[in-house]
Amino acid sequence: MLMARQGRHGATRRQPKGAAFDRWLDRVVTVAVLTAMTIGLAAVVAHWLL
């Protein structure tokens, strides 16, 4: 029995076409979450102090 040939082998694999969009979206989500956490923390601190 012959094994079916698979694609190229190697340590690095080609990125799918949407990979750049995924990285961009990850950065946007990270910035949005950090901004929300900063604003929330500031609101809690303001509530405690005022």
Overall description:
With 50 residues, the protein is mainly α. It is 62% helix and 0% strand. It starts with 18 loop residues before the first helix and ends with a helix. The mean pLDDT is 84.
Brief digest:
The protein is 62% helix and 0% strand. It is built from one helix and no strands.
Helices and strands, in N-to-C order? H
Mean pLDDT: 84
Distance between the termini: 78 Å
Largest sheet: none
Strand composition percent: under 5%
What is the number of E strands?
Answer: 0
Pairing-aware structural class of the strands and helices? mainly alpha
Number of helices: 1
Oligomerization status of the protein chains: single chain
Layout of helices and strands, plus pairs?
Blueprint lengths: L18 H31 L1
Main features:
50 residues, mainly alpha, 1 helix, 62% helix, rod-shaped
